[in-house]
């Protein structure tokens, strides 16, 4: 065998073999890069659930400080900012301090991940990994909240009301985006040949559940005519459901029954939740017997409500595309799967939201054990949230019609001007 590099070896020459190796190297690098991006994407998606668990743990911690911290954590009574008897670090004060710690943690995460767009950035590594450092950051945030003076905690409580309102607004935006997605997926589409049977079935179930819920609320919460607030709330809710159905079916809107049915069910739920938040001593509510430490039904309801808070925050937080002013046209392989800064911002507002639910939106109002969001302030917050949700949904239905009619009118006016000239 000679040293000629072009000498045939089998069916190939040595030159061909070298060229194949040179071509294969870039492909191997591409495959490794794609594998690395896939691993980082999975880490990023998994991080959402870890942050959700941290948020859930913080909720449990706030409940513990509110209901049992005074009896167990005697050492906090010696901290100056907790007052002579330690009252400023327990009950409502304890909830606000834990909420502030959670808010600090997610605010730092928001600031440190702001502007992250690629999976190979350091900010992506900080968001998806480095859990020991983030755990230490969380502990430091909680500790800081318990060495802050009472005056600042009271100020935070006032600000938390605004933050909780912002969270409810973000939740409503996410809900409207979900309705639009349902319409696009399950409503009949002549172009694609989709019959929309499941959408019709779901809209029927939604309306049946909505009107059944309204009838049940009349029976349970309006036993006599003196229950004016409950009668008005239930009746107005029924009117809103009917108005949304009529507007959705109007020939100029033609939005179908699915989104209006789901939104109707949602506002019926808000109405029921608002009435349930009324104080237990009201004559229009069936009094619930409860032991000092809570019976098992009360505890189960509390845990369900706690999980609902976490799920509401988590579902709103992962829906980051709903809050982007500029939508991403196409996602590249090295793009992050969701906006980290929006995710952490929603959770920081959720920290304020759960604080308001635990103290019933009143900073100095005594709360009952194993209770969440009970009191007249909570009732009216939910009622206003219901009316706002229905109003924004109706505006979203009719605004395209109004703008289209204005555009047509403007075009006709311009044509008349040109014809006169």
TrEMBL record:
It is a multi-pass membrane protein. The chain crosses the membrane at residues 49-68, 89-111, 131-148, 160-180, 200-221, 228-250, 256-275, 296-318, 342-361. It is found in: Membrane. Keywords: Membrane, Transmembrane, Transmembrane helix. InterPro entries: TDE1/TMS. GO terms for cellular component: membrane. It holds the Pfam family Serinc. Belongs to the TDE1 family. PANTHER family: SERINC-DOMAIN CONTAINING SERINE AND SPHINGOLIPID BIOSYNTHESIS PROTEIN, SERINE INCORPORATOR. This is Probable serine incorporator isoform X2. The lineage of its organism: Eukaryota, Viridiplantae, Streptophyta, Embryophyta, Tracheophyta. The gene is LOC109708171.
């Amino acid at each position: 065998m000679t040293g000629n590099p072009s000498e045939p070896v089998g069916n190939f020459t040595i030159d061909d073999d070298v060229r194949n190796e040179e071509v294969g190297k870039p492909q191997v690098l591409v495959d490794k890069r794609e594998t690395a991006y896939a691993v980082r994407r999975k880490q990023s998606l998994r991080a959402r659930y870890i942050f959700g668990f941290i948020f859930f743990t913080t909720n449990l911690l706030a409940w513990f400080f509110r209901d049992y911290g005074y009896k167990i954590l005697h050492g906090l009574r010696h901290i100056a900012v907790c007052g002579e008897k330690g009252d400023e670090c327990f009950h409502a004060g304890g909830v606000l301090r834990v909420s502030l710690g959670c808010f600090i943690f997610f605010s730092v995460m928001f600031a440190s991940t702001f502007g992250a767009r690629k999976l190979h950035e350091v900010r992506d590594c900080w968001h998806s990994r480095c859990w020991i450092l983030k755990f230490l950051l969380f502990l430091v945030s909680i500790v800081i909240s318990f060495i802050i003076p009472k005056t600042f905690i009271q100020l935070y409580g006032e600000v938390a009301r605004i933050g909780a309102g912002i969270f409810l607004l973000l939740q409503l935006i996410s809900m409207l985006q979900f309705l639009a997605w349902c319409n696009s997926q399950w409503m009949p589409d002549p172009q694609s040949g989709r019959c929309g049977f499941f959408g019709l079935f779901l809209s029927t179930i939604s309306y049946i559940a909505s009107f059944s819920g309204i009838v049940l609320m009349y029976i349970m919460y309006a036993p006599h005519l003196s229950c004016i607030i409950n009668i008005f709330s239930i009746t107005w809710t029924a009117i809103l459901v009917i108005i949304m159905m009529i507007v959705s079916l109007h020939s100029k809107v033609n939005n179908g029954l699915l989104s209006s049915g789901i939104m109707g069910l949602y506002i019926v739920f808000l109405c029921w939740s608002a009435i349930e938040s009324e104080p237990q001593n009201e004559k229009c509510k069936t009094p619930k017997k409860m032991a000092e430490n809570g019976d098992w039904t009360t505890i189960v309801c509390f845990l369900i409500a706690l999980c609902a808070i976490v799920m509401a925050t988590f579902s709103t937080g992962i829906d980051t595309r709903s809050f982007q002013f500029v939508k991403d046209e196409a996602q590249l392989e090295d793009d992050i799967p969701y906006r980290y800064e929006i995710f952490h911002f929603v959770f920081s507002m959720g920290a304020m939201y759960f604080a308001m639910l635990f103290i019933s939106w009143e900073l100095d109002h005594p709360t009952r054990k194993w209770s969440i969001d009970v009191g007249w302030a909570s009732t009216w917050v939910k009622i206003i949230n219901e009316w706002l949700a229905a109003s924004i949904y109706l505006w979203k239905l009719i605004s395209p019609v109004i703008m289209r009619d204005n555009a047509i009118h403007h075009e006709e006016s311009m044509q008349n001007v040109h014809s006169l000239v």
